Amino acid sequence: MPLSEHEQRLLEQLEKQLHEDRRFASSMKGPAGTGRLSTRNIALGILLVIVGLAGLIFGISQHIIIVGVLGFAVMFAGVLLALTKSATGKIGPSTGAGSASASKNNSQFLSGLEEKWNQRKRDQSDN
Question: What is the reported pTM?
């Protein structure tokens, strides 16, 4: 269902205000959203969970409470490690040239989408 003229004007005003308000845009880019999960951290985390589970089962089966508690703590640390986001923001080993080309490709992709959006708006306004 197409937007009415009034709704289109409101949408354009909102878009314009959002593009102009840099402080709002930077506040929306929180530190929790930056980075990606690292495959190295995931692999080490899974390994720690397996070792911790083995320690937990061994501690319970031998009635050694401290070993079971330590096994649980190791499992918990493994989950935390696996879910920790990397500082580089890339999955796998970091390469400087790859990240520069990735950001260039991302910029080209976004500009292409923006051009398609503008073309669609022009086509709708012509009708």
Answer: 0.46
Question: The tokens 């796998």 sit on which residue?
Answer: 92
pLDDT tens string 80-117:
999 988 765 444 454 555 555 566 666 777 787 788 88
Give pLDDT tens digits for 78-87: 999 999 887 6
User: Residue 54 in contact with residue 71, Cβ under 8 Å?
Assistant: yes
The answer to whether 71 and 52 are in contact (CB under 8 A) is yes
**Class of residue 100 by CB neighbours under 10 A (exposed 0-12, middle 13-18, buried 19+):** exposed
What is the Cα–Cα distance from 88 to 92, expressed in whole angstroms?
10
Judged by DSSP in three states, 4 sits in coil
CA distances from 94 to 18, 28, 57, 102 (A): 33, 26, 37, 12
For 35-73, letters b (16+ CB in 10 Å) and e give eeebeebbebbeebbeebeebbeebeeeeeeebbeebee
> How would you class 86 by CB atoms within 10 Å of its CB: exposed for 0-12, middle for 13-18, buried for 19 or more?
middle
